[in-house]
Structure formats: structure tokens, C-alpha cells
Inverse folding.
């Protein structure tokens, strides 16, 4: 008879820039999916791992580890804590090979892992008949896909071209001042025209819109974390006109900057950040408890 993993808890959250989790150890297994590359770092005794591409972190029981999240942008991640007899048996053998449990795995764009994790969270939220078993079956599929990543790496989707990545880094570093698309293009090494065409092809939006969005995301974090006026924050993120900043913020966020601060500056949410997903099938920034540790089979 197939023994399924027992899920303890799972969630989909985004933490504020600069957050640190650990040093810590856990009693069960944890799989964490990062849907986007960031400057976050996962630290464990086998060395630090830069979480600079979409991928999965896997942590075994009793292993000291730490997460240092991106210092500039919120870091979203989906996680699941679980117990699994097959993993426990393999991990607890004196001759166990930790290489069979990769700390950090980059996943291809077509991976099933993200959709299966989201379906697990939807089931945990809705709690239909047999929901715990369904979630465990899905987790079994996630683990199978995760262990097959090494075989699938040859089919991985291409990463962003280096000039686009340089341009994105340049944007991030220069958010505090006025910069032109010509400057950003120059940082990429491409001509303005070629850069704009390639940026839209790879990112799906013009560079002007991407720059505006990054300014507003930085403003969100300052609104939550910094005791500065709206005018000061507007200048901090590269706007020269406070009123234009206020119009753009309300147009894109559906609320004024002051309303945003009042809503998200609650101490209860001090380590969380806004998750931008239009049609989530479950509440975001929430943990779901599936089984207490004592209920694991």
C-alpha cells in the first residue's frame, strides 16, 4: 500500500525586504518554492545558495539553516512542512547520501510544481470531502517532480538574456533618482531601439512601465516601514512631483498612498508584503494547518 506524506502546514506568503529567518532547525521536512528569482540567500552548512531564479529549497529535519531575503524587494514563496516515512528512512540511515536531497533546485518554466502547490493550498482553504488525502496525493506528485528536476534540466526554459538582467539591476540601483530609458538601454549594452524591442519581448511590458512599477513597489515598502511623509517617499523613489506620484499610486493600487499605509502598517503584518495576484483561489499571506505534528502517521 502506498504511504503518502503527511502535511503539517503550508502557505503562500511574501516577506518584506531585508527580512531574516533563522538561524533555525525544524522537526519535519520543508519544501519551499520561490516563483521568481530575487537576491534572497539560503544559508546552510553546505554553502550559501543564491535564490536568483525560480526554484525549490528543500530542508531536512535538524539541519541549521537561515534565509536572508532580498534587501530591496518583497520575496514571495510557497511552502509546505510535511513528514514522509520514505524520506525519513532514507535520511536517517547512517550511510544516507544528502546529495539525493538537493538543497536548491532551479525549475523550468513548464514545471508542474507551482500549479500543484497552488492546488494544494486551494484544497486546504476550501476543505472539500477528503481534502487532506487529496493534498497529500498532490504533495507526492510535487516530490516526484522535484526529484526529477535534474533529469529535466536539459529542457529548462532559457533564462533572461544578460543585457536584460543588467538593465533590471540598473533600474533597481537607480530608483532614487530620475533616469531615462536611454540610460537604462546603455547599461544593457544595446541600442535604445533594440533594447526596447527585446525588453517587451522578454518582459511583456515596455521598460517605462517596468520602471514605474519598480518605483511604486519601493514606495510600498517605505510606506510600511519608514516614518516619512508621502512627499518624502515620492522623492525617495525618483518622483519629482508629489501629486503625480499620488495619481499613479492610486491609479495602479486602487487606493491612496495614505490608505495603503493605514491598511498594511499594522504590526500584525510587519514582516509581510503585498502579493500581486489577481485571481488567487485561496487567501494569500496565510498559513494553513493540515495536521498537528502529533497526528502524523
Amino acid at each position: 500500500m502506498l504511504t503518502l506524506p503527511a502535511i503539517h502546514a503550508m502557505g503562500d506568503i511574501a516577506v518584506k525586504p531585508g527580512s531574516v529567518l533563522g538561524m533555525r532547525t525544524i522537526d519535519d521536512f520543508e519544501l519551499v518554492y520561490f516563483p521568481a528569482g530575487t537576491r534572497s540567500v539560503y544559508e546552510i552548512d553546505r554553502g550559501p545558495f543564491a535564490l536568483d531564479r525560480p526554484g525549490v529549497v528543500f530542508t531536512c529535519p535538524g539541519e541549521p539553516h537561515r534565509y536572508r531575503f532580498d534587501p530591496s524587494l518583497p520575496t514571495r514563496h510557497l511552502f509546505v512542512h510535511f513528514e514522509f516515512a520514505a524520506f525519513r528512512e532514507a535520511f536517517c540511515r547512517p550511510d544516507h547520501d544528502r546529495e539525493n536531497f538537493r538543497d536548491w533546485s532551479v525549475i523550468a518554466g513548464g514545471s508542474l510544481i507551482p500549479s500543484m502547490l497552488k492546488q494544494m493550498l486551494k484544497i486546504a482553504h476550501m476543505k472539500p470531502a477528503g481534502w487532506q488525502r487529496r493534498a497529500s496525493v498532490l504533495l507526492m506528485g510535487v516530490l516526484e517532480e522535484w526529484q526529477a528536476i535534474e533529469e529535466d534540466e536539459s529542457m529548462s526554459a532559457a533564462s533572461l538574456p544578460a543585457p536584460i538582467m543588467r538593465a533590471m539591476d540598473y533600474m533597481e540601483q537607480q530608483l532614487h533618482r530620475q533616469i531615462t530609458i536611454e540610460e537604462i538601454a546603455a547599461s544593457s549594452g544595446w541600442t535604445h531601439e533594440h533594447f526596447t524591442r527585446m525588453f517587451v519581448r522578454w518582459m511583456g511590458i515596455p521598460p517605462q512601465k517596468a520602471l514605474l512599477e519598480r518605483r511604486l513597489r519601493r514606495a510600498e515598502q517605505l510606506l510600511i516601514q519608514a516614518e516619512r511623509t508621502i512627499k518624502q517617499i515620492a522623492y525617495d523613489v525618483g518622483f519629482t512631483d508629489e501629486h503625480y506620484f499620488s495619481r499613479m499610486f492610486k491609479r495602479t493600487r486602487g487606493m491612496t498612498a495614505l490608505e495603503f499605509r493605514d491598511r498594511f502598517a499594522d504590526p500584525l503584518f510587519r514582516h509581510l508584503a503585498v502579493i500581486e495576484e489577481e485571481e488567487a483561489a485561496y487567501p494569500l499571506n496565510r498559513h494553513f494547518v493540515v495536521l498537528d505534528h502529533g497526528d502524523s502517521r
Observations:
- Residues 207-225 form the longest helix (19 residues).
- Residues 107 and 149 are 7 Å apart (CA to CA).
